[in-house]
Amino acid sequence: MEQTVEVINHIIRTRRSIFPPSYIEKEIPQEIIENILENANYAPTHKRTEPWRFMVFRGQDKLQHLASFFMERYRNNTPAESFSQARYEAAGEKILKSACVIAINAELHPNDVPEWEETAAVACAVQNMWLTATAYGIGSYWSSPAVLKELAEYLELPEGQKCLGLYYLGYHNAPDTPARRNSSIQEKITWA
């Protein structure tokens, strides 16, 4: 049992946000993505609503399609005199540098559970994904772009679902970095 605790402590304490500029061109096998998502399914959930819903984008065509949403949104919302080809291309760059991007969605059950509890359950599912990706040596991070309502429309989410962001994944060459916390846990605990 002690070895299990050491392993989970190591994975939790070495988990980092690894961003797409550090990703290398290497495909993540589908069975690994499925395992990452399977572990998400074991997150805690009030009343067993299991509100997490995921839409997986992998492969150049699917990633390009998602990147085009952000690129065209930039084009359509930027006055011609302010338009920059570099910014247009940058709008989809994170997606195109990723091996896989997963849209993180919540299926809300307002008659059964408050929305914040559903959001918390989805966050727990994402943490399970993050820890599993870390164990596989895969970099990842969760981003919540300012255009979540538009993104939900683009994704054609059914009524009752809400987009909570995008989860980027890729093998990477980022150096190991130590954890940074502003203060120790002792400063955040009150013993009652």
Describe this structure in words.
With 192 residues, the protein is of the alpha+beta class. It has a domain at 15-58 and 98-174: NADH Oxidase. Helices cover 42% and strands 17% of the residues. It has 7 helices and 4 strands. A 4-stranded antiparallel beta sheet has the order 1-2-4-3, sandwiched between helices. α2 runs antiparallel to α6 (115-135). The protein is globular. The mean pLDDT is 96.
Order of helices and strands: HHEHHHEHEHE
> Do you know the CATH architecture of the domain at 15-58 and 98-174?
3-Layer(aba) Sandwich
What is the name of the CATH superfamily of the domain at 15-58 and 98-174? NADH Oxidase
Which band does the percent of strand residues land in? Answer: 15-25%
Helix content: 40-55%
Low-confidence stretches: none
> Could you say what the CATH topology of the domain at 15-58 and 98-174 is called?
NADH Oxidase
Helical/strand content category: alpha+beta
Q: What is the CA–CA distance across the termini?
A: 30 Å
Write the layout of secondary structure elements.
Blueprint: H1 2-14, H2 30-40, E1 52-58, H3 60-76, H4 85-90, H5 93-97, E2 100-107, H6 115-135, E3 138-143, H7 148-155, E4 161-171
Antiparallel strand pairs: 1-2, 2-4, 3-4
Helix pairs in contact: 2-6
